[in-house]
Specification:
221 residues; 64% helix
Length: 221
């Protein structure tokens, strides 16, 4: 057996096998890590809830203004036929009714409701009612609480949409990483299989050589 064949059989094969095993292990760990990252991002809760205390804490330093003021320049209250009200079909909390008793204020509130999913609109009103109740209990201005809630809620929905996009991107990245990692694992596993086949089927040195026949001494006559 030549030096090259000896090196190939004893050293190169072992080195190649070790490298392939390390690569397979690294790629499997990468696939597992990507899956764990995607899972951690996906399980992170997305909420648009705005606690009443959060709004109250925001408006506490503000000075109180007369309660007769209406949200964002609304006019004085006027009687509205229920069927003609922009809020017809919603259950308006009692504490909000004095703030949304005129058409201008109702349209302002309805415009905000139109920006959120239909399934969340009644919860929006109920949450806003809780905010105003807490504000009035703290002797704070209800109009300030309403305006601050609307501003905060809009930002909360924007943040929630950004988190949803982040989850989608994380899942897409994890899927691409998993597909690429598994393909590389399969490739290096194939290398290991081919190396094993090649080593086990290679003839040993001298095995293919026929021994020289002993010199004939002649047949007896």
């Amino acid at each position: 057996m030549s030096i090259v064949e000896n090196f190939e059989r004893k050293a190169l094969f072992n080195i190649t096998r070790a490298v392939a095993l390390v690569c397979v292990t690294v790629f499997l760990l990468a696939v597992f890590g990507g899956a764990m990252y995607a899972f951690s991002v996906w399980k992170e809760p997305i909420t648009t809830k705005v606690p009443a205390k959060e709004i109250v804490d925001m408006i506490k330093p503000a000075e109180s203004v007369p309660q007769s003021a209406q949200p964002q320049g609304a006019q004085a209250p006027v009687d509205q036929t229920p069927e003609l009200s922009p809020l017809f079909g919603f259950r308006v909390p009692f504490v909000l009714q004095k703030y949304a008793s005129n058409e201008n204020a109702q349209h302002i509130l309805k415009n905000h409701l139109d920006e959120i999913p239909v399934s969340d609109r009644q919860d929006y009103l109920d949450e806003l009612g809780a905010v105003v109740t807490e504000a009035e209990a703290q002797k704070l201005n209800g109009i300030d609480a309403i305006n601050k809630y609307m501003e905060t809620k809009t930002k909360r929905y924007a943040d929630a949409e950004g988190k949803r996009l982040q989850k989608f991107e994380a899942l897409k990245l994890a899927a691409m990483s998993a597909a690429g990692g598994l393909m590389l694992v399969a490739l290096f596993s194939l290398v290991l299989v081919l190396l094993a086949i090649e080593r086990n089927t290679r003839p040993s040195g001298g095995s293919g050589r026929n021994k020289s026949a002993a010199p004939s001494e002649g047949l007896p006559t």
